[in-house]
Specification:
The protein contains three helices and four strands. About 5% of the residues are buried. The protein has helices spanning about 15-30, 60-70, 75-80; strands at about 1-10, 35-40, 50-55, 85-95. The radius of gyration is 14 Å and the shape is globular.
Length: about 100
Amino acid sequence: MIYEQRVYQITAGRAGEFLKIYEAEGLGIITRYAKLIGCWTTESGTLNSVVFIWAYEDFGHRTAQRVKLGADPGWQAFVPKILPFLVHQESRFLLPTAFSPAN
């Protein structure tokens, strides 16, 4: 299992609006292709950020699922709705250690 941490820095004061749109219109689409482990907002570090952690079987599974997601017409229609909120985006892969509860 691998985990992808995706961090979206949102225009100041718009995180709530971003989350409402994401939950209402995007979440049902992306969860057909990836397992949501959690979603958080930040209170320290880079503020105005939303952090998602997604689970995949391995890197190959993640690659295949992202291709399917990118080809989904619903996702293609959704992405332009959230782009105006984004200031910066990061993606980081996390591999659980042998003693991790997530392993």
